[in-house]
Structure formats: C-alpha cells, structure tokens
Amino acid sequence: MSVMHLGHQQLLTAIQHAPTYAISHTPSVDGIDAELYAHNIQSLKRKVRGQLGLLESHALTQLTLRNLSVSAFNEIQLSLEPHLDRLHIRIDFDSDTGGCIFKCPSAAHEAGLCAWQNLVALLQEIRMPLQLSQKVRWFAGAPDIPLRSLSGKQDSKKTPDLCLRYAGSSTPTIVIETGFSESCVLLRQDARRWLQGTYDPATDTGVQCVILFRIHKVMKQIFQNGYINTAVIDSYKNYRGIDIEIWRNQTIPGTCTPLLSGTTQGNAQKHTTPIMISAGGYSIEAIIEKEIPAWQEFIKTSKETLLHTKGHRDSAPIPRGVSQKESMDYITIYLEDIVSPANVPAARWETKYANIPIQLFLRGYLSTLDLELHHGREPQDNDTIVEEDAWAAFDMDEEALGISHDDSDKGSSDEGHEGAPTVLA
C-alpha cells in the first residue's frame, strides 16, 4: 500500500499496516498480526524467532508486528534479547498503534557509520571546557531508547542508527537515522518521533537534532559490484542520489527552549514542533560527473586520513532554529546540540559550532562500495596494486617520524623471532 496520509496518528497507523519489503527478488512478506496470538504468547515468540532468521540471512529487510500490546512487546523483547543483540537488531515500538518493527543494519547504516566517524572528528574540533568534553560519549552505543508517544504514554521504544549522548543521560543529544528502503516520509516521521518523544519540559532536555541520511534506491542500479553501470546513467542522471536533512524542535525566539503546542488532556501533553532546518544532496549526474572524480583524486593524493574536506570553516553558520528555504551544501552543529543547552550558558548559545560539509556523507557511502577506478571498463592486472610513488610518499612520512625500514634490523628483537614487529609506545 502507498502511505499518503499526512496526519500524525493516521500516518503511524498506515506505517504499521504497510507490508514489509524484501531485498532484491525476494517476495515481500506481510507483517505478523499479534492479535492472532493473543492467548498464546509462546507461539508468537517462536514465530518471531523464526522470522529473525530471515533477517539474519537478509531475506527480509525488516519484520513488522501489528496490534502488539505493551506487555507482549516487553515479554518478546526480554526473551529474544540475546538474539537481538547478536544480530544488532534495531527496534521501533509505538505503544499508541501497537506496531513494532525489527530491522537489521543495512548498507545505508554502514555508510552512515563511516560518515559518523568523520563527523565526530569534526565535532571534536569545537572548543569547549575540558569538563564538558570529558562527559561527551562521542561513540555512544545504540540502546533501546524509551519514547513518549503523542498520547503521553511512556511505553514506546526505538533504537537509533547512530547517536551521541552526554554522560549521565540515557537519552541521546544527536541522532542519525539512515535510510535505503525507507521513504522520505518515514524517515521524517522518525525525526519527529525522536524530537517530540524524548523532550522533557521539566529539565529542558532531550534529543537536540536529528540528521537524516537517505540513499535513494536508484543508487543500487548505478553502483554494482564495485563498478559504475554506465549503461543506465543517462536514464537516471536527473534522479536524486543522496539527501541529507537536519531537524530540530522549533524554539522560542532568542532561546534554545522548544516551543510547545497542543493542549493537555488526559495523559496527553503539549508537544514540541519539529522543523527541518536545512537540507542538501546530490543528483546522480553530480555524483558521477563531479563528486566521484574529486573523491578518487582525494584518495590518490591526500595525506589526510579523514574522508572529507575541511571546507566551510569561513562560511556563516546556519541558524539553529530557523528553517532554510534554499538547498545547502553543509549543515551546522552547535555545542548545544552536543551537550544540550542546559550545559551551555545562555550568553554563549550559537557561538560554538562546526560547519559539516554534506560531502562527508556522500564520501562515507562511496567508501563502502569498494568502487574501482576504471568506471565500467574491464579491470586491468595492476588495478589492485598500490602505485610506487604512493609507497615512496609513505616511506618519507615514516622517516620523518623516525621509523626505520632497514632490512638489517629484522630479526634483532630480544626474543630472536625473525621479522618480529616493532611495538611503538
């Protein structure tokens, strides 16, 4: 079915009742209706455990359960926890709709992880007091995070693709959600749920920003087995290849405090208003004609270890709470996003930041493709051989560091093992 509803509750209901799409030529598999197992939770657990095997073999991209009660979800999660941890299964349970989705890491997740490593390196350049930087968990794990639903329930849970958090809090401050098979509508729904579902008005804390990293399905047609499929480029060159969006809660002007809307009725609470701050991306034509040649030249000539350019240092920061109408080729992450506004004096809000080129995310994806340099031609015998001048430059760097490669040193270790490696303290 096609999800076209715009209302929050209707959209969530449609999402949970949508079929689960399988990879490649594998037929789609409908989700499991938990109501059919209402009086036999053991059978439901066995059914789910069997379907997890399809996730592990990549016969399914996700497993969907419908009409699942909170108690049944808790029991299933507890009994399957060892399997979920081993397979790195991500969970998305919404107590309002009774919908639960189990997902395995995808190619988009791997690309996001590569980009995340370089993103963190740039964020660590933001100057901050040592007491703050020591409490930032730069490479935080991705546990199941409790979310508050729009109806006020505290029973929903979701696993972020990647996240960063501040010590003493289980709630992330920055979340990255990656998508390969998910539509733009579903990814944006994820952003809204993170921003609305984690905000605590009593402490003014919660997820500060969500970065959406979407790789369009057409990229599968372009990049196949390490080659660029030149036969289809003309057909897809005007298609979108990659999109990046950054979302935050709309704030009271002049502050970092979210603007609350709605009414308080029953368990329901006033909620924040998530907005897209900025967005950018690349068409297939731009990726093929401009970005890939630049990336390959970077790999061959650069001595840097990070797969990004450190541009935009002099560019004006994108305001934290103002939505930009034009497409941007960078995003801005503020210190308040990393440690939450409560840990930054109000007079210093929006003064410490890093401008992150969206090129970083594209190159993160390209680095996962094992993309050869021959652009669809037949591979040559020397395609996998590192050029001699690259080794010569490497040796010069090693010599500058005082590292010797004299063959006469081999076998001179105390243990007498021939060719034993030198251990540097």
How would you characterize the overall build of this protein?
This protein has 425 residues and is an alpha+beta fold. Helix content is 31%, strand content 20%. The strands form five sheets. The chain has a six-stranded mixed beta sheet, with helices on both faces. It has a six-stranded mixed beta sheet with strand order 5-8-9-10-13-16, with helices on both faces. The chain has a two-stranded antiparallel ribbon with strand order 11-12. The protein is globular, with a radius of gyration of 24 Å.
Question: How is this fold's topology laid out?
Answer:
Elements: H1 8-17, E1 32-33, H2 41-56, E2 62-66, H3 70-86, E3 90-94, E4 99-103, H4 107-123, H5 130-133, E5 136-140, E6 145-147, E7 156-158, E8 162-166, E9 172-179, H6 184-197, E10 209-215, H7 218-222, E11 223-224, E12 227-228, H8 233-236, E13 240-249, E14 260-261, E15 271-272, E16 274-283, H9 284-301, E17 330-334, H10 335-339, E18 353-357, H11 359-366, H12 388-400
Parallel strand pairs: 1-2, 9-10
Antiparallel strand pairs: 2-4, 3-4, 3-7, 5-8, 6-7, 8-9, 10-13, 11-12, 13-16, 14-15, 17-18
Helix pairs in contact: 2-3, 4-11
